[in-house]
Q: What sequence folds into this?
């Protein structure tokens, strides 16, 4: 696929991916674009359809998968999630760095695709801290918290696999985690800025 190299941000639910991403997208709104996934889970308060996710029924999602519309998809915590080809293309059409927030199954499936992104995982300092964050967020039922913690324990182990991720960011103190993320992406941000400057109209007056 054409354009700047995409970025995959993965890591256990509750690790802080959305928090870091929101800030990154705010600070560099013309450089990065979010790949809006589809999901069959219910929207949380303040989540906007078409911005945070495309909220769909399982039937709609299965139909679109059968039609070959997805780059990858996975079942997570009792719901389906997937990256449509259109979601990535619409960001790439704007010449922005496309960011995908996906789970470990998504990472493994994207590795089989031709997307060729930078792979970053955001990890919590411990499972206990992760559990506290998930509980304090007040978005999950007890059953959902348990499913997410079980997935987290497995995924944190898999994350250690050499070569799976290009960078591992421990999100303990938010400011430090954000600085580390910026450091990892600095080269790509510079390249994207240079690209924009060289393609913008010159003022010869
Ligand atoms: P994810 O997108 O990975 O599921 P979130 O970004 O929703 O995780 O973060 C989970 C919760 O933890 C949110 O309530 C968020 O405000 C909080 N949080 C994120 N990073 C930190 C941090 N470094 N310290 C304390 N709380 C945090
Ligand atoms: P949440 O329900 O907390 O928004 O997301 C749950 C998990 O699904 C997170 O780990 C998130 O990264 C993952 N996820 C979100 N969108 C996608 C997607 O399009 N594909 C895959 N494979 N995982 C996704």
A:
């Amino acid at each position: 696929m054409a354009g700047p190299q995409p970025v995959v941000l993965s890591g256990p639910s509750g690790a802080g991916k959305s928090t870091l991403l929101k800030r990154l997208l705010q600070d560099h709104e013309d450089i990065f674009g979010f790949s809006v996934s589809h999901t069959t889970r219910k929207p949380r308060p303040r989540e906007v359809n078409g911005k945070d996710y495309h909220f769909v029924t399982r039937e709609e999602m299965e139909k679109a998968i059968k039609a070959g519309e997805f780059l990858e998809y996975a079942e997570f915590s009792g719901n389906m999630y997937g990256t449509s080809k259109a979601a990535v293309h619409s960001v790439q059409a704007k010449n922005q760095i496309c960011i995908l927030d996906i789970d470990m199954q998504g990472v493994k499936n994207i590795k089989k695709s031709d997307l060729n992104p930078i792979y970053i995982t955001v990890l919590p300092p411990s499972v206990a801290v992760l559990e506290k964050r998930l509980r304090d967020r007040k978005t999950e039922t007890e059953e959902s918290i348990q499913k997410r913690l079980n997935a987290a324990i497995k995924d944190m182990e898999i994350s250690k696999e050499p070569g799976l991720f290009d960078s591992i960011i421990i999100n303990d103190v938010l400011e430090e985690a954000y600085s580390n993320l910026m450091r990892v992406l600095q080269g790509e941000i510079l390249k994207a800025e240079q690209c924009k400057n060289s393609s913008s109209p010159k003022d010869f007056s």
Notes: The beta strands are 7-10, 32-34, 38-39, 54-55, 70-76, 79-84, 97-101, 118-123, 167-170. The chain has one domain: 7-193.
